[in-house]
Specification:
The complex is a heterodimer of chains A (261) and B (310).
Chain A: E1 2-11, E2 19-29, E3 34-39, H1 45-53, E4 60-65, E5 68-69, H2 75-78, E6 82-85, H3 99-107, H4 118-131, H5 148-159, E7 166-170, H6 178-195, E8 198-202, H7 206-211, E9 215-220, E10 223-229, H8 230-234, H9 238-249
Helix pairs in contact in A: 3-5, 5-6
Chain B: H1 3-30, H2 38-54, H3 58-82, H4 87-105, E1 111-113, H5 120-127, H6 137-156, H7 160-170, H8 172-177, H9 182-207, E2 210-212, H10 219-234, H11 240-263, H12 271-309
Antiparallel strand pairs in B: 1-2
Helix pairs in contact in B: 1-6, 1-9, 1-10, 1-11, 2-3, 2-4, 2-9, 3-4, 3-9, 5-6, 6-11, 7-9, 10-11, 10-12
The chains are: A alpha/beta (261), B mainly alpha (310).
Chain lengths: 261, 310
């Protein structure tokens, strides 16, 4: 459903800071895939997401989503089909506006001059209740008052309110405490499974990279080193992953930020 | 001048400038754009309104002033969203350009007189001639305008477009991920805000029956001072109608204090200085207050250290 073909992206071209973040990257994602993405810092994982979501235009190559060429489509148009979550829970919602107002914008319903209807309010309430965080009683409170975990859960709900074709998760639980992270992750799996959303997830947790989803990509220097799925992936351990990386790159994987278990 | 007429003058002028305050409420508080073209836009509204009124169309002058105000906002918005001009610079550039435009509108002159001109105020005066409100005809006109604008803002900011405009000032990334182009919301927001500024200028010119090229000078600071006074009363976390009424109230309080100060022999030219001081105090005050604990901590630490060494 998503076809990336020969993508290139260099930041600050022609300067001493030039950095080739994507280098001849091609990837074919099947409908319903849940792909985990690992790699050292600066491997190009977030850049890949930026290219897919349209934060910038790639230098070469093409991006096709469900048969439509979206290589040049502006970011806010792509947002109709692509949901995206960041590590920073503050990025996905407007802190000065109420939960209800945030949801109303994310729901994408109605014309420009339409207002939040009673039916909408009721639905927001029901959906918030499903998060089991008590947010349904705080609909009129500004989002800025919520905790990081609550905000990330809300963002997840906003990003999937009208079901996207593709969900990009950029370490979306990394800034949360372990218990909240677990909850948000469980919620993510539930929503993705329920709506059959194709999903790409960057993670620094090697174990969950293997546990979650059906396919794991390892990136380095703007390229995909390994694309592991199916039978081969089932028997794989974290130690195997590290060995694979060393074989391909010739040095140890920078494990400072990595969680090995 | 007795106390009642003092209050009435403050009410009239306060209500007229409150339209500019409401414009800033939309651009500065909601959209988070400090629109420095406000002064020029205010004069533009006054000049165009006066010219149309002098041509014999008092009602059309209102629509014309709002229209050109919106157009000026459109230019400012396009400069900052589509042409890469910094948002402050876009306002300054438009403001400067408008000076020439305004002189041209006033027919190569820097002063227009409307003593013999039919205006919305003179029409209202005729209308109210035999009623108990005949002395308050000016207040009636501007009050009607202010009520319309406050109602409009209350309704508009609760629509999807209004929410998108507020979110643009709050978190543009979130707007994009909601499939809305923040460029679009910025343009719409600035057009609407500047149409209110134009209306404000038009009404001031018609109420004082003349317009000169300096009529809008310092208006941004005066309106910002009023807005911040209003925030002090109504708070910034409250619902939109409360905040909008707070902004109007702030404009009234500002004018009242100013009118009283005039009574105590403060020279009229101090208006702009006072408004500057209020803006600085309102913005710097909370910041300085937040620094007090840091200062205390430093002093404490220093004196404690001194004792330790002794």
């Amino acid at each position: 459903m998503l076809e990336l073909s020969h993508l290139y992206k260099t930041f600050n071209p022609g300067t001493t800071n030039a950095k080739e973040a994507l280098s001849d990257l091609s990837l074919s994602v099947a409908d319903g895939d849940f792909i985990t993405l690992i790699g050292a810092n600066g491997a190009g994982k977030s850049t890949l997401f930026g290219a897919i979501a349209g934060s910038f235009l790639t230098d070469q190559g093409s991006i096709t989503l469900d048969g439509d060429d979206i290589t040049l489509t502006p970011e806010h148009h792509r947002a109709k089909y692509i949901g995206r979550l960041f590590q920073d829970p503050m990025l996905g919602s407007a802190p000065g506006m109420t939960i209800e107002e945030n949801l109303a914008l994310a729901s994408g319903r109605g014309g420009w001059l339409s207002r939040i209807s009673k039916v909408d309010k009721k639905e927001f309430c029901e959906r918030l209740a499903a998060l089991d965080m008590g947010l349904e009683d705080r609909m009129q409170q500004p989002v800025g008052l919520l905790s990081g975990g609550q905000r990330q859960a809300l963002t997840l709900m906003m990003a999937t309110f009208s079901v996207p074709k593709l969900l990009l998760l950029d370490e979306h639980t990394a800034a949360l405490d372990p218990k909240t992270a677990e909850k948000v992750l469980a919620l993510t799996e539930e929503i993705v499974a329920k709506h059959h959303i194709t999903c790409l997830m960057i993670t620094h947790n090697m174990q969950s990279a293997l546990d979650l989803g059906n396919r794991t990509l390892m990136m380095d220097q703007g390229r995909i080193l390994y694309d592991i799925s199916g039978e081969k992936r089932r028997g794989l351990t974290v130690a195997d992953l590290l060995t694979l990386f060393k074989e391909a790159v010739g040095k140890e994987l920078d494990t400072d930020r990595m969680l090995l278990s | 001048m007795n106390a009642l007429s003092l209050v009435q003058t403050a009410l009239e002028l306060g209500l007229i400038s409150s339209l500019t305050v409401l414009a800033l409420f939309l651009s500065y508080s909601c959209l988070n754009v400090c629109d420095l073209s406000t002064d020029g836009c205010f004069t533009l509204g006054a000049a165009v309104g006066a010219v149309v009124a002098i041509a014999g169309h008092p009602y059309l002058s209102i629509a014309a002033a709002m229209g050109v105000g919106g157009l000026s906002g459109l230019v400012t918005a396009i400069l900052q969203t589509k042409m890469g001009v910094d948002s402050l610079l876009a306002g300054i550039v438009v403001n400067t350009g408008l000076y020439s435009v305004n002189i041209a509108v006033m027919g190569n002159s820097s002063l227009l007189n409307m003593n013999q001109t039919e205006t919305v105020f003179s029409r209202m005066k005729d209308l109210l001639a035999d009623t108990p409100l005949k002395e308050q005809y000016k207040t009636v006109v501007v009050l009607a305008a202010v009520v319309c604008v406050v109602l409009f803002l209350t309704l508009f900011l609760a629509t999807r477009m209004g929410l998108a405009i507020r979110a643009t000032g709050n978190n543009p990334d979130m707007v994009r991920s909601s499939s809305i182009d923040p460029v679009y919301t910025t343009i719409i927001g600035l057009c609407i805000a500047n149409s209110f500024t134009g209306l404000s200028g038009c009404l001031l010119a018609q109420s004082q029956k003349s317009v000169n090229i300096d009529i809008g000078t310092g208006m941004l600071t005066v309106a910002l001072a009023s807005l911040l006074i209003g925030n002090a009363f109504a708070g910034t976390g409250r619902r939109i109608p409360v905040r909008a009424v707070g902004a109007v109230f702030g404009a009234f309080v500002f004018r009242l204090v100013y009118t009283i100060a005039l009574r105590f022999e403060m020279p009229a030219f101090m208006l702009k200085f006072v408004s500057s001081v209020i803006v600085v105090a309102a913005i710097a005050g909370p910041y300085i207050r937040s620094q007090i604990p840091v200062l205390q901590r430093r002093l404490q630490h220093r004196s404690g250290k001194g004792e330790g060494h002794a």
